[in-house]
Amino acid sequence: QVQLVESGGGLVQPGGSLKLSCAVFGFTLRYYAVGWYRQAPGREREWVACISRLDGTTSYADSVKDRFTISRDNAKDTLYLQMNGLKPDDPAVYYCATDMGSKCREPDRMDYWGKGTLVTVSS
Length: 123
Fold this sequence. Notes:
By secondary structure, the chain is mostly beta strands. It has strands at residues 3-7, 10-12, 18-25, 34-39, 46-51, 58-60, 68-73, 78-83, 92-98, 112-113, 117-121. 0% of the residues lie in helices and 46% in strands. Strands 2, 4, 5, 6, 9, 10 and 11 form a seven-stranded mixed sheet that branches. The chain is globular.
């Protein structure tokens, strides 16, 4: 059974850092593309970052490029999102997701989702 479980969210001050984790179960992480997505109140869910299958090529939304880093630990089947320089636009529920394929797609095309972890940015 495919399962994704996020953790690591919390409250951080503007400019601060936070590292999210996503443990996956029921499949081997490195064989599939997996992405991070987020949804802020009143806004649509949006893609944040993706790590490709096998070679682990990474890609980012323009809004987080150079601030966020996606990575994975193949031995632990765990995905990470290191978030630095957090801004007032970043608070949201952050999700990891996969469609068990080779690409990260638009949110409505991803098949498997975690329940999310809440990130709050406030002074």
